[in-house]
Design goal:
Elements: H1 2-13, E1 37-39, E2 69-81, E3 85-97, E4 107-113, E5 116-119, E6 122-125, E7 137-144, E8 155-158, E9 165-167, H2 198-215
Parallel strand pairs: 1-6, 4-8
Antiparallel strand pairs: 2-3, 2-7, 3-4, 5-6, 7-8, 7-9
């Protein structure tokens, strides 16, 4: 939490100094269609041993059980990319867990690490969890930003970079081809995550279904 907060502050301060790769033009998800954006990374065979959630002794295998706020949200499509984090604007539809500061109908930004970053004049997406898109509702797990006591607009931080939100109308995400860098990011809107391993794809799809059963 402290690390992400410092990255948010640093990113906001240096947003205007991002290299001229077109990142500062990204304000909405529709803007992604005007850019050639590739994935920086996707889960692969080398990650299979580290992505397992079968242990019955694990009380919080997905890292979201302690989230201060659990809600159903819809994405507006607005995004805020800084030099070190990405924010997505959402509208709160239903609150399953939260304090008095969070209300249905409220619009907030939720942040996580990285997002779109410049690489040698290109734009690459550095997360294995895809963005949220308008037209779908998501179950989201997040914590309030420590800065909320000092600002008018409330912001939140994803509890998990891998399971921060799940599409309510979940459909199994397919496995990407091995050459995942050949995809243009705007072609991947139906993917909830990015994986080139059939084993990991199956594990993550089951995990997302499990989260919906547990918390929705």
């Amino acid at each position: 939490m402290i690390m992400l907060l410092s990255m948010l502050l640093w990113g906001a301060a240096f947003r205007l100094n991002l290299p001229d790769s077109g990142i500062t033009e990204l304000k909405r998800v529709e803007d992604l269609e005007t850019k050639k954006i590739t994935l920086n990374y996707a889960w692969g065979k080398e990650d299979e041993s580290g992505i397992r959630f079968e242990s019955s002794d694990e009380t919080d295998p997905y890292g979201v059980a302690s989230a201060a706020c659990i809600a159903v949200v819809s994405a507006t499509g607005n995004i805020h990319q800084t030099a070190a984090s990405i924010g997505q604007e959402v509208v709160i539809r239903e609150i399953h867990r939260g304090d008095d500061t969070l209300k249905a109908g409220q619009t907030v930004y939720v942040y996580t690490y990285f997002g779109f970053l410049p690489v040698e004049g290109r734009i690459e997406y550095f997360n294995t969890l895809n963005l949220m898109y308008p037209g779908s509702d998501y179950l989201i797990f997040m914590d309030a930003s420590p800065l909320n006591d000092y600002q008018t607009n409330q912001t939140y931080i994803l509890k998990s970079a891998y399971f921060g939100y799940v599409k309510i109308k979940h459909a199994d995400t397919p496995t990407l081809n091995m050459n995942y860098r050949d995809y243009n990011f705007c072609e991947l809107t139906e993917y909830e995550f990015f994986s080139t391993s059939d084993a990991i794809t199956g594990t993550l799809n089951r995990a997302l279904e499990d989260l919906l059963k547990q918390y929705l």
